[in-house]
Write a structure and sequence with these properties.
Blueprint: H1 3-6, H2 20-25, H3 49-61, H4 76-80
């Protein structure tokens, strides 16, 4: 499933399963202790092309410092727990 991405030869390859606790802490270095931040999330059964385009458009409007947008797939083993 990730072969097409790996064929692009990324400098860093972090694709693969990780423990939830590691995923949960993966953004800690981006937001130092004391940073006042706000997070929002949602779950979708499907993500349309229009929704992806909208996420990209809003991501481009965000302030550059301490801002991020990410999309996570919680299917597979996570969905079976």
């Amino acid at each position: 499933m990730v072969a097409p991405i790996r064929e692009l030869g990324p400098e860093v390859d972090v694709l693969g399963p990780i423990p939830y606790s590691m995923f949960n802490a993966s953004f800690d270095p981006v937001f130092p202790k004391g940073t006042l931040s706000y997070a929002k999330s949602d779950y979708f059964d499907e993500i349309s092309e229009e929704a992806i385009d909208m996420m990209v458009a809003w991501g481009d409007k965000k302030p550059p410092n301490l801002s991020l947008t990410h999309l996570n797939h919680f299917g597979g083993a996570v969905a079976r727990v």
